Amino acid sequence: MIRSELIQKIAEENPELSPREAEKIVATVFEEITAALARGDRVELRGFGAFSVKHREGRIGRNPRTGAQVVVEEKAVPFFKTGKLLRDRLNERQA
Amino acid sequence: MSNKTMTRMDLAEAVHAALGLSRNDSAALVESVLQHISDTLVHGEQVKISSFGTFSVRDKSARVGRNPKTGQEVPIHPRRVLSFRASHLLKARVAAGQG
User: Fold this and answer.
1) Alpha-carbon distance B92 to B46, whole Å?
2) For chain A, which domains are there?
3) Distance from CA of B76 to the nearest CA of A (A)
C-alpha cells in the first residue's frame, strides 16, 4: 500500500470528506510525527508502535575501498519500535 | 530538544486544527489511518508512505536462543517482525533537528 492508496481508503470510508480533506488528514498525521521527531520528541502510539530518536556518536570511519580515514559526525536517527498489539497480530496463526 | 511524548491525542488535535473537524471525528480518523496501516501489514503487505518511510514485514526463521541469565537454551520460533525504514527526508529532518 502506498500513500495515495491509504488516502483513498480514508476517503472511501468517510464519504462526507472531500478527497482534498482525506489527503490533508494523512499528510497532517505524518507531518506531525516528523516534526515531533525533528524536535527530538518521542511519538508513542499504543498498540501500533513508538517512534523515537536515537543518537549515534561520532566516530572515525574508513573508506573501505581506499582505506582513507573519514570523520563520521555524531547524528540523530529516527527509530521505530513495533507495539505489542501489532507485534502479536503479525504472529497470529493464519486461518 | 524538548523531550516530550506525542500521543494519538496530539495527532487528533493537529487534524482538528488543520481541518476544523470535531475532536471526536479527528480522533476517529487518526485511529483509522493507523488501523489501515496495521491491517495491511498483518496481511503481509508493505506500506510505503512517500517522504516519511516504509513499513515492511520480514520473516525470521527459528533459531536457538539462550537465557542470558541462566545460560539455558530456549528455542525461538519462526516469527514475523515489522521493520521501518525512514525516508531520506525524515532522516534529514531528524538529523537537522528543530521541528
Assistant:
1) 23
2) 3-94 (4.10.520.10)
3) 13
